[in-house]
């Protein structure tokens, strides 16, 4: 595919039905069918173009069969003829783009081997506007910090996915944030700390996180299945 044959996120036009985008999947998750362990209700994606701009993607149940074995997190693709559909602005948003790409019967996906953009798409935000409560609460954010305190795992809920751990992280300026992590992430971190008591530093990157205000206290939390954590230890 030649340069100019694909559309950047900044050039999207709701009046155009036929377009192709060159995108990397930086997050992919599914909603599983509760009654059928092999069934999937839908696939959700966060996609990024070569300029680093992100947009959500959605594969409805009707077309799961067509795309479930094709789409892989971390891989880049040419995505041709998706629908551009409006997001509900009243709900929490994972990107700053108020439309999403919905895959349909005509949509085609082919591997892209020359994607020149970022691999991970981090967009870290400074702690100060979070602490000052000047960051919009209806859109996700990325934070990075040195872990300075680790709480116990709260496992009172029968659902392991609802088990949580509270951390405190610190930036290079000494500012601190409270962070809640959930599910398997709690146990992965806890097990590593127990098996490696002499570690000097743990740095955590939390991507697509959500600001939560509880009793006037601001903390960062994972948002459903969309958030991801990268832990750097030494």
From TrEMBL:
This is Replication protein A 70 kDa DNA-binding subunit B/D first OB fold domain-containing protein. It comes from the Eukaryota. Residues 10-112 form the Replication protein A 70 kDa DNA-binding subunit B/D first OB fold domain.
